[in-house]
């Protein structure tokens, strides 16, 4: 049962409403609350904006799931991660936690405890094996790491699969700028470079995320096999997946830095007054 119903009440629908019902409700509410029909008062504009924000959340399956589970505080914490201050993050986390049911709180606490226990097991088992307190194989010693890696890979796969473009009430993608004309692409070399860099960054965030996770896990597998003596390769070869991962991260940062520099330079050139 959905505990947070404020957005549903703003839209005038039930928590079990389908996407089609949400679209119809949005069109109806937009006609009712449009500021032009209500004197363009600040109150009318705020009410319309609040309703539009509720629809934007409920029309996105991922945002809707987060809202149903944690409410508005959970949305703020997820969407504002990295941009909010520590105090704001703590306030949002406490608000989201307090709005969760007893069962959800227990599951969250149990999950955090289990993850912490597995993390503590990793150095403990390594120390026991190095001190020869136990004679387990290194593959067995790495079992806690394999568990964490499995969770990491599953979360990465889910993150890659769920990266969908936002859509409007008509199901059309929104937020994407119109493609430049062929003429402008040919004439503007700087714009082409910036566009390519932006596309590479966007694709790398989605398509290379899983590759990075696989390289990280492959490094651990090779280390375990090297310690066990199952493979006879140099340490440099063992760390080659990790070195490739670091190279990818460095290349991404270089492309991002150049993209920002080119964008700033283009903006400064456009804003420069003609003499």
Features:
mainly alpha; extended; 275 residues; 3 domains; 13 helices; Helix Hairpins
Rg over CA atoms: 25 Å
**What overall form do the CA principal axes indicate?**
extended
Helix content: over 70%
What is the count of β-strands? 0
Helical/strand content category: mainly alpha
Runs in which pLDDT lies below 50 for 5 or more consecutive residues are: 164-191
End-to-end gap? 67 Å
Strand portion: under 5%
Main location: membrane
Protein name: J domain-containing protein
Keywords: Chaperone, Lipoprotein, Membrane, Palmitate, Transmembrane, Transmembrane helix
InterPro entries: DnaJ_C_subfamily_member5 (IPR051434), DnaJ_domain (IPR001623), DnaJ_domain_CS (IPR018253), J_dom_sf (IPR036869)
Describe what you observe in this structure:
The chain is mainly α. The chain has three domains: 5-83, Helix Hairpins (Orthogonal Bundle), CATH 1.10.287; 87-135; 136-161 and 186-274. Helix content is 74%, strand content 0%. The chain contains 13 helices and no strands. The protein is extended. The relative contact order is 0.06. Residues 164-191 have low confidence and may be disordered.
């Amino acid at each position: 049962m959905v505990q947070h119903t404020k957005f549903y009440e703003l839209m005038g629908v039930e928590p079990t409403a389908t996407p089609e019902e949400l679209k119809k409700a949005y069109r109806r509410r937009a006609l009712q609350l449009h500021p032009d029909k209500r004197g363009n008062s600040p109150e009318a504009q705020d009410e319309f904006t609040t309703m539009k924000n509720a629809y934007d959340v409920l029309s996105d399956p991922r945002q809707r799931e987060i809202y149903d589970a944690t409410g508005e505080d959970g949305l703020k914490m997820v969407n504002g991660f990295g941009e909010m201050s520590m105090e704001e993050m703590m306030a949002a986390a406490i608000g989201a936690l307090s709005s969760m049911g007893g069962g959800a709180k227990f599951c969250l606490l149990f999950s955090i405890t289990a993850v912490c226990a597995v993390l503590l097991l990793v150095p403990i088992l390594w120390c026991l094996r190095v001190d020869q307190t136990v004679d387990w194989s290194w593959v067995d010693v790495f079992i806690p790491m394999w568990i964490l890696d499995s969770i990491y890979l599953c979360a990465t796969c889910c993150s890659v699969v769920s990266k969908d473009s936002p859509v409007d009430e008509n199901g059309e993608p929104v937020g994407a700028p119109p493609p430049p004309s062929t003429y402008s692409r040919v004439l503007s070399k700087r714009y082409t470079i910036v566009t390519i860099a932006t596309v590479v960054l966007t694709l790398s965030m989605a398509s290379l995320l899983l590759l990075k996770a696989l390289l990280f896990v492959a490094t651990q597998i090779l280390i375990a096999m090297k310690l066990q003596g199952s493979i006879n390769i140099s340490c440099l070869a063992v760390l080659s997946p990790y070195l490739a991962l670091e190279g990818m991260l460095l290349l991404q940062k270089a492309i991002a830095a150049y993209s920002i520099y080119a964008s700033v330079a283009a903006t400064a050139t456009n804003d420069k007054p003609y003499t």
